[in-house]
């Protein structure tokens, strides 16, 4: 994929508005259930939505605020206020903003490469609202795979938002179809459940693994990646995924497990014939949101990827890789 000029950009002296928090009593009660009953993996979906909501100057996601909930919106907003008042070199949530834009742009390019129509599968979909907000999916069938309680809660919140908020009342699914598939990608039967829901392995497919692989064990993540790679033997297949390196998983060893320091070597070994890797801050992965040359991501990009600690200060080299892999029956690696 050619290097892209960063379209969105961070305005000078941008002042972040406080979250609108347009919540009805029903939505507040639903988020109270999330706070009480969900574990950290499930709640991470709300954290991601909060990042999209508070970076609304570059990401248009009208559902993000209601899907995030007050707790995560307020928490991130306080961090952003602190960063801006301290003139931080990178603002909290920027990595989520860049990651979202990278996935959006590469998903659009992938769908266009298929002639505008594809199957799009979001594994660990969480509070993702792409099926509602991306008009280029109008000829594509979208499948969201996640825990049953996550998908049910998400649908209930969206319906409550449509019924109670002006911004959402006319919101409709932008994709040709939206299919929610209750399944756990840690189990062996998630692909079977996907096919029961209408997924056709022989149709061109874009697979999205955003913010999910590192929560899996090594064996679980490799099983998911191998299953997707096997699809390359049936049809033109594109995978969009983000990978932590080993040092990044050390941020929380009880939460993050799977890592790959060299995902651009891992994916070809599984059967993807064409793999492209970017780091946050690269020309196709900054969108004008990381202007300071001394910010964390730009400092890391200048170092060899095999370094585990920064030679200047000894800090861990924590990297997030944005990776596209593709393959087709005519290109399958023996």
Automatic annotation (TrEMBL):
User: Could you tell me one molecular function GO term of this UniProt entry?
Assistant: methyltransferase activity
| Superkingdom of the source species | Eukaryota
Signal sequence residues: none
Q: Which InterPro entries match?
A: Ppm1/Ppm2/Tcmp (IPR007213), SAM-dependent_MTases_sf (IPR029063), SAM_mthyl_Trfase_ML2640-like (IPR011610)
Sorted alphabetically, which Pfam families does this protein's record hold? Answer: LCM
**GO BP annotations, alphabetical order:** methylation
Kindly give the Gene3D superfamilies that the UniProt entry links to this protein.
Answer: Vaccinia Virus protein VP39
Keyword line: Methyltransferase, Transferase
The text of the family note is:
Belongs to the UPF0677 family.
Identification of the protein by name? S-adenosyl-L-methionine-dependent methyltransferase
- Species, as recorded: Daucus carota subsp. sativus
């Amino acid at each position: 994929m050619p290097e892209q000029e960063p379209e969105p950009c961070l305005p000078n002296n941008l002042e972040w508005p406080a979250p609108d928090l347009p919540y009805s009593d029903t939505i507040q009660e639903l988020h109270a259930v999330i706070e009480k009953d969900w574990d950290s993996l499930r709640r991470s979906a709300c954290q991601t939505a909060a990042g999209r909501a508070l970076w609304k100057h570059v990401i248009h996601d009208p559902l993000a605020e209601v899907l995030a909930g007050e707790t995560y919106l307020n928490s991130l907003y306080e961090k952003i206020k602190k960063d801006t008042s301290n003139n931080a070199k990178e603002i909290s949530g920027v990595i989520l903003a860049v990651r979202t834009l990278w996935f959006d742009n590469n998903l659009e390019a992938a769908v266009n490469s298929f002639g505008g129509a594809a199957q799009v599968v979001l594994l660990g979909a969480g509070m993702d609202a792409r099926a509602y907000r991306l008009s280029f999916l109008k000829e594509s069938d979208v499948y969201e795979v996640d825990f049953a309680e996550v998908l049910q809660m998400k649908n209930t919140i969206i319906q409550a938002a449509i019924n109670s908020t002006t911004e959402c009342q006319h919101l409709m699914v932008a994709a040709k179809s939206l299919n929610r598939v209750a399944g756990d990608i840690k189990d062996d039967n998630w692909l079977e459940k996907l096919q029961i829901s209408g997924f056709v392995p022989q149709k061109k497919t874009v697979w999205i693994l955003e913010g999910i692989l590192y929560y899996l064990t090594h064996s679980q993540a490799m099983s998911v990646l191998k299953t997707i790679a096997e699809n390359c033997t049936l049809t033109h297949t594109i995978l969009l995924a983000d990978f932590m390196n080993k040092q990044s998983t050390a941020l929380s060893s009880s939460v993050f497990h799977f890592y790959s320091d060299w995902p651009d070597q891992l994916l070809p070994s599984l059967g993807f014939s064409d793999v492209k890797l970017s780091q946050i801050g690269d020309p196709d992965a900054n969108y004008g949101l990381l202007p300071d040359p001394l910010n964390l991501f730009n400092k890391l990009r200048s170092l060899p990827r095999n370094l585990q600690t920064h030679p200047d200060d000894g800090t861990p080299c924590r990297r997030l890789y944005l990776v596209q892999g593709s393959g087709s029956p005519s290109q399958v690696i023996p």
